[in-house]
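Write out the 3D structure for:
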Amino acid sequence: MQFVSRVQLPRTSECSELYVKFNGSAFIDFDANKIILYQNDKISFNTYFNSIYESFYTKYTNLNELKYQFKLIGAFEIVAYRERLGNEKELIKSERVENQDLSNYLEFSLPLLKSAPDSGRIYLEITCLSQQGTIIEGLIATQQEKQRDVSLAIISCTFKKEAYIKRTVDLITKDNLLKNKDFKIFVIDNGKTLNDNDFNDSKVKLVPNRNVGGSGGFTKGLIEALQEGAYTHFLFMDDDIEIDSEVIYKLFSLYEHGKQDFAISGSMLDLQKKHMLYEAGALYNKFGDEEGNIEDRELNITSIKRNIDLRNASALNSITLEEEVDYGAFWFFAFSKEVVKNIGLPLPFFIKMDDVEFGLRVKKYLNSAIVAFPSIAVWHEPFYAKNTGWDDYYSQRNIMITSAIHGSLKYWTVLKSISAGLIYHLLLFNYNAAQIYAKAFEDFLAGPNFIKNTDSEALHSQICSYSKSHKTQTLVTQPVELNENYQITKVGKFRKFLTLITLNGHLLPKFAIRDESAFIYYHRLESKRDSICKAFAKKRIILKYKEIPALYQNELDSQAAFNILLSWIILVIKSRLLWSKITKQWKQSADDLTSIEFWQTYLEPRES
C-alpha cells in the first residue's frame, strides 16, 4: 500500500476554506488537529487542496486506483462527487460507515479515475449520522506499484531571512510522513547570517555562499547536490514562502508514479490574500489582460490563471483545464537529474528572469512537459506589493539576454521597449528608474564578458545606489487608500501632444511651472490608470500604485532629465553599430555560462 497524499487540514482558521468547508456546528480542533462534528453536520472537501484533479493524475502518472483511509469515530455518510468545467456535478459513490476502533483505518474506495475529456475534479462530502463524530486523520492511498524510487534535493537560497528559512526547514523535517522519504535540504546562505546550530537535523546542510543573488544561490545548491550524486530530482524553493509540507509529500508521489519525465511548476498563492491564486505557471513573450485575453508581445511575460478566488467551486473547476506553461518560477520548481544533465545550470543573472531562461530550456528538453499541478502551491509575497526600483535593472537586462539566447532579438523592438520605459519614467519625474533602464541597456551591450568579469556583489551595490541617486524622489510612508468612487483622469489628443513635446514640462521655462502637485493613480493596465498629462506644467507628482499603500513624491528636475536623455542618445547611436555582434555573443556564450566549470570559478570569492 502506497500513500499518495493526505486529507489536509489547515493549521489556522485564516485560510480554512482552501481545505475544508463546514455546514452546521462542525469545527476544527486546531490543538488536536482533528474535526469535531455533531449529528447532521456536514463537511465538504470541495476545496483547492483536498480535491483530486483527475486529468493531471491520469496524464502524468500511473495512478488511477485511489482509496481514502480515515481514522474516525462515529457513524457517517461519505459521498464522492465529480465536477467538471462548466460546473456539471456528478455523484459517483455514496456509502454509510461506522467505526469506534482507532487501531484500524476505515476505507472508502473511489471508482477508477478518468482521463480527459471525461475527467474532472473529485471530492468528498461527509455527514455525521451519530450524536457526535470525530475525524482524526485522512489519507489517500493506492495499491499500484511505484514506477521508481525518488530521492529529492530541496535547494533554498536565503539572504538575511533567518526566521523564514528556519520555519520552513522545521516544518519539512518534522513532518511524520516525510520522515520515511529520501530527501535533503540544502540551505544556501548568501548573507552568511546562519550557523550550523540553527539546523540540528542530518537532513539539512547549510552552505555559506557569497552574495551572487538568487540564481547564484540556487546554482550553488544544485552543484552541491550533484556532487553528492544521491538525488534523482531537485526542487528550487524560495526562502520567504509559507508552505504546507504536504506539497513536498505530493511531489514525491507524482515522481514515484510518473509515466514520463516532467517538471513541476508550483503555483503561487497571494500571501496578503491567502485565498487568491496569483499564478499557476507563466508564459514568455505574451501579454495577458485582467479578462484573461492573451496576445503575443515580445519582451513580456504573463501569469497563467491569475487572480482566481480559490474559495469558489466554479473557479476550482476552471483550473482543471491544463494550459501550456513556458516556465515555472523558482518559488517552487522541481525537475529531474536528467534535465540538468541535458540542459546545464541556470544563467548567472543574480535575480530576475533566471527562472524564465532556465524554464525555456527545460520546456524544450521535456517537449513542453512543465506541469502546474493544482494544489502544489506555496504562499508568497505578491510582487504588486514591492517597488524596490533597482530590480528593474535586472528585469530589463536579463529579458534582453534571454531573448538574445532563445530567439532573434530585433534591435528596433528592444529600442522601442527600452526607450518607451525610459521616457515614461521621465514623464513621471522618476529619474532613478529612467537611469536604471539606460544602465540595463548599456550593460547588455557590454556582452557576456561583462557578467564573467564583473563582481556581482559590487554591481548590485552600484545598482542600488543608482536607484536612490536622485534626491528629488521621496517615499511618503503614511498608508493611503483610494475612495471607491475615485475617477480616473483621461485627457485629449492635444493635451497628450503638449505633454510629449515638452517632456511633461521639462522643456518649459521655469516661470511656466506651477508650484503644484498632481496626484496620479498607476495601474498595470493603461486603461485603468490616470493620464500622466495631469502633471503637465506642475512641479510635483504624487504617485499611488494600485496595491501599494504608500505614496511616492517625484519633483521635476529639468537638468536631470537632460543628462539622462543625452546619455541615452549617445548609447542608442553606439548600440546600432554593436547590435548584431553583441546578440551573437550572448547566444554563443549560453553553453559556457551554464556549465559547471564556469560556475565553479564564478562562485569563488572575488578579489577587491
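The CA atoms of residues 244 and 378 lie 7 Å apart.
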